[in-house]
Amino acid sequence: MPVDDLHGSRSRLTLEIWHPNCWTLEVTEETPAGLLAHTVFNAANDRVKGHFTAYGDTTAAVDELVAAAEQSPLTHSVVEMQRRHDFRGRTPPGNTSRELFVEYDPENSMSDVFIANDFVQSAPVRVFDGREYWSLFVDDDREGVRRRLDAVREETNADITVTKITRADAGVDAATWRTDELSGRQREVFELARKRDYYDWPRGISARELAAELDISKTTLLEHLRKAEAKLLNPDTGALS
């Protein structure tokens, strides 16, 4: 989405990002699981510790991601947390999740660069399939936003795509934002179903044809759609699906 579409000064941006030497991008590209990045703390030796939720459709997928994080040359330690209280405020996507503290070098993170350019993070960072998805606030006009993003790109050598821009005080359809609650696979299946007019009447494609296009069974397709629809229609139930 072009930055020229921005109107007003205080805005919310949704960004899709790739940048080099990032352990979260590497492990999510290598494994069928994802990460939610919550909070970063200062650690010893000029390192940081980040609080992450690893999530996936199966326990094996999450185990694979944790093992990849432990073996990554870009991490120094990975510690699993015993969850006593759900302090994140929302249920992670996927069927299973695990809380992690990961120690790593801050120069491989985007957080400090965004802060230095006056962006304010408004939600946990979603990481899956080798991409980060950021939701940020910024108080500037469109030219200022463009300059700030260019400065971030230059400093980090990051590939940044603006996928959504809205005024921070504008009403946003809740269903649009709730798609962030879907796992990567659920979102892929749901978005393709919408694109192929599966939800139109009469339907533009059958479940069997849609499953064949995705190279999965009809049963698996319907299970992904059921879980996606449950999260979109009932976002506050707290059910892990």
Number of H/I helices: 8
Q: What is the chain-wise order of helices and strands?
A: EHEEHEEHEEEHEHHHH
What's the CATH topology label of the largest domain?
A: Gyrase A, domain 2
Shape: globular
Strand content: 25-35%
Termini Cα gap: 31 Å
Number of domains: 3
Low-pLDDT ranges: 4-8, 84-89, 171-177, 235-241
**Rg over alpha carbons:** 19 Å
CATH class division of the largest domain: Alpha Beta
- CATH architecture heading of the largest domain: 2-Layer Sandwich
Mean pLDDT: 82
What is the count of β-strands? Answer: 9
Task: Give a verbal description of the structure.
The chain is α+β, with helices and mostly antiparallel strands. The protein folds into 3 domains: 3-18 and 111-172, Alpha-Beta Plaits (2-Layer Sandwich), CATH 3.30.70; 23-108, 2-Layer Sandwich (Gyrase A, domain 2), CATH 3.30.1360; 175-233, Orthogonal Bundle (Arc Repressor Mutant, subunit A). The protein has helices at residues 23-30, 59-71, 111-116, 142-156, 174-178, 184-195, 207-214, 218-233, and strands at 10-18, 33-42, 48-56, 75-81, 96-104, 120-121, 125-128, 131-139, 159-167. Strands 1, 2, 3, 4, 5, 6, 7, 8 and 9 form a 9-stranded antiparallel β-sheet that branches. Helix 1 (23-30) packs across helix 2 (59-71), helix 6 crosses helix 8 (218-233) and helix 7 packs across helix 8 (218-233). The longest helix has 16 residues, at 218-233. It is globular and about 55 Å long. 30% of the residues are buried. Mean pLDDT is 82; it is low at 4-8, 84-89, 171-177 and 235-241. This is Helix-turn-helix domain-containing protein. Keywords: Transcription, Transcription regulation. Residues 182-233 form the HTH bat-type domain. InterPro entries: HTH_bacterioopsin (IPR007050), WH-like_DNA-bd_sf (IPR036388).
